[in-house]
Amino acid sequence: MTQEPMTGGCQCGAVRYRVRGELTWPHICHCRMCQKASGNYFMPLANAQKNEFEVTRGQIAWFNSTDVTRRGFCRDCGTPLIFETTKAKHLNITLGSLDRPADIRPSEQFGYEAKMPWFAELDGLAGQPTDDAAQDDPEHFERIRKTNRQHPDHDTKEWPPRQH
């Protein structure tokens, strides 16, 4: 059976990529380096073989985190896309940059020593769908909708679309 390639990219659409083959070791990394690189409490990642990964639009910018690791991101919008150990045969894709992130369920946590101690309490927090907030300030959310520059969750022939 042939697996359909997975696609993804940055928020603004300047960088798009495709992965042929299986993503392995889907995990959530809590290490302090991933926290800083993502500006978040953790970073969901999965391995892709380097020879099965291709950039289909734009160019990935790089930051050398150490002498042997680097982070790939979009130069235009800053979206984190890749964590790479330079001598490895695989790289780590950020799961949130996939077009269908829900398709890849993490199976492990890494860097557990830096995990936020209160994560178990998150399900007890009050929650609200985005649409409910839009009802509180419809003009604000309509302006966001009309000026949204986020690339859709699928490949496009060109981006941004031409204004007619």
Describe this entry's structure for a reader.
This protein is of the alpha+beta class. It has a domain at 6-116: Metal Binding Protein, Guanine Nucleotide Exchange Factor, Chain A. The protein has helices spanning 32-38, 130-136, 138-147, and strands at 6-9, 16-19, 24-29, 43-49, 53-57, 61-64, 69-73, 80-85, 90-94, 108-110. The chain has a seven-stranded mixed beta sheet with strand order 6-7-8-9-4-3-10. Strands 1-2-5 form a three-stranded antiparallel beta sheet, with no helix packed on it. Helix 2 packs across helix 3. It is globular.
Quick check: average pLDDT? 92
**What order do the strands of the largest sheet run in, or round the barrel if closed?**
6-7-8-9-4-3-10
Helix content: 10-25%
Order of helices and strands: EEEHEEEEEEEHH
- Please give the radius of gyration in angstroms: 17 Å
Using the coordinates shown, work out and report the CATH topology of the domain at 6-116.
Metal Binding Protein, Guanine Nucleotide Exchange Factor, Chain A
**Class computed from helices, strands and strand pairing:** alpha+beta
* Fraction in beta strands: 25-35%
Count the strands? Answer: 10
